[in-house]
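Supplementary Methods, section 5.1.

A reviewer requested that the exact input to the structure prediction be made available. We therefore reproduce it here, unchanged from the version used in the analyses.
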Amino acid sequence: MSSVRGAAVIDLADYTESIGSRIDGFLYRGLNRDDYAMVWVSSGFQALTGEDGDAFVRQRKSFSALIHPEDIQSVNDAVAKALETGGRWQVAYRLKAPDGGWRYVHETGGACDPDPVTGTPQYLDGIILESSRLTRLAEKLDSGRASVKAMNGSIAQIFKTLKTLRLLALNARIEAARAAEHGVGFNVVAQEMNALATTSEGVMKLIEAELGRLNEAVKL
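The structure derived from this sequence is encoded token-by-token as follows.
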């Protein structure tokens, strides 16, 4: 199949394969059935899954078998909803990697070529992109938000402790005044306690402000 654009004649198959070779993932066309068997995949398929694309297509292997067992239901649900509404699906899941582990991927797809009799789409087209780095980044951001939340809780407790320290310093000064000249040393200690509380409170307010800015920075 070819398309004419100006003076250039573009072979759509070659063009699609060229695009597929430039992404961290692959383009595909699969059958609209439970195992998502593929009828065509671009060259990035092997790099992402470790499976030879031509053999995978030729043998009509089950693509769903490459999806993590805990994620297959969410994939099925996303595809089913899109088929029902006539829209497209976007879903993130884990796909078996060449080393036997799992890679996070993000898939966008849609149905095409409805059966002339039943109207049911015969094929599913889409793109699957490797997203492990983005997923790990999101996990780190989640961890960062949790840490900020925990630190905010600790700061609140420190402010509470400083308030108690101020009250103790005030009580100490009162007792020092009652003791007259015998309470001079006690009064000095009370003043130092109050100064320490004031200085610490100022530092904690600065830290609280920085944490507030950090909290805004890690929001998605």
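The longest strand covers residues 102-114. These observations are discussed further in the main text.
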